[in-house]
Structure formats: C-alpha cells, structure tokens
C-alpha cells in the first residue's frame, strides 16, 4: 500500500486528497479483498437503512410495518354474510360509499374481536414482565440487570460482607 502511494502520488498534497486511490488502485486488489470490501459496505448500508437497533426496535419503521402486517393477517374481517348485510343496508353503492367510515357503526362482533385482540396483546406484554417478590431489585432496566448479574458473579464473594453490614446498618461508623 505504501509503494502504491509513493509511486502514484496518492498521499501527496497535490489536491487529490488523502486516502484516495490512484487510477490503478483496483488493479492491485485481489477479487477476495474486493468482495470483502463490497460486503462490508453493503452490510454498513443495510444497518444504516434499518435504523436503530437494541432497545429502540419499536422505532424502526421496517419492524413496525412487519408488526402491522402480522396484525392484519391475524384479523378476522367480515364474514361473507356480514358483508352482504352491510351491502344491502347501504344500498346500490355498497361498502365503498362516500360516507363510508363516518356513517358506519361497528358490529358487536367486530367490537368483541377488537377488544379480545387488545386484551391478548396486553396479556402478552404482562407475561414479558418479571416480578420477583423475594428478590431485591438492584437494577433500573434490563441492560443494567444483566450487568449487575455479571458483576455479582465475579465479585459477589468479595462484597457479601459489605452488603450484610449495609443491611444491618453497621457498615458506617457513628459520627
């Protein structure tokens, strides 16, 4: 790489910019290294387009869209009988009349279906939460909980006496 910079003048101050390749730069590159660079660049671009990761997944538009599609697939729409009933009620225009949403009232079955879906989602969210009545909570979020567990595993035997003294109130001298 240094030989190319010296021979081609890639690193000089002639206005070409530092780090740019000379015209024959790709000729000195193997197919494997070119493929590696290409895949790294493509992966970097994909990560940038996917948005934030980690605890921020709910803000990612691709994930929000896929969750929406899952909910749409699970949803039970009108049965053919309900559709025929609504179409007959609305007249010749059918379901897609201009007054569509404002003039329509949801059926009791539709309301029950929506409320059962919302209750199922809430129950699933409750199931993800952990409650430990007998355990002291010494964390503020999931990441901090994992960190504290690792620290306890490594240093727990050294800090057990200090924790016991703090619990009893004998760790600090009387002033």
How would you explain this protein's 3D organization?
- Residues 15-25 have a biased composition (Basic and acidic residues).
- Residues 1-59 are annotated as: Disordered.
- It is found in: Nucleus.
- May be part of a spliceosome complex.
- Involved in pre-mRNA splicing.
- The chain is an all-alpha fold and 175 residues long.
- Among the domains are: 54-96 and 106-128, no CATH class; 138-167, no CATH class.
- Helices cover 59% and strands 0% of the residues.
- The protein is built from seven helices and no strands.
- The longest helix is centred in the last third of the chain and has 27 residues, at 142-168.
- The protein is flat, with a radius of gyration of 32 Å.
- Residues 8-12 have low confidence and may be disordered.
């Amino acid at each position: 790489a240094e030989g190319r910079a010296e021979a081609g003048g890639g690193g000089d101050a002639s206005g070409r910019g530092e780090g740019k390749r000379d015209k024959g730069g790709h000729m000195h590159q193997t197919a494997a290294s070119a493929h590696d660079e290409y895949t790294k660049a493509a992966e970097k671009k994909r990560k940038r387009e996917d948005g934030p990761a980690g605890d921020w997944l709910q803000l990612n538009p691709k994930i929000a869209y896929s969750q929406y599609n899952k909910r749409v697939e699970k949803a039970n729409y009108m049965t053919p009988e309900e559709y025929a009933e609504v179409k007959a009620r609305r007249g010749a225009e059918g379901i897609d009349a201009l007054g569509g949403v404002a003039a329509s009232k949801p059926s009791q079955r539709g309301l029950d279906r929506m409320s059962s879906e919302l209750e199922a989602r809430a129950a699933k969210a409750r199931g993800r939460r952990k409650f430990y009545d007998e355990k002291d909570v010494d964390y503020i979020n999931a990441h901090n909980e994992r960190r504290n567990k690792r620290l306890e595993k490594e240093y727990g035997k050294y800090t057990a006496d200090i924790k016991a003294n703090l619990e009893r109130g004998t760790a600090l001298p009387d002033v």
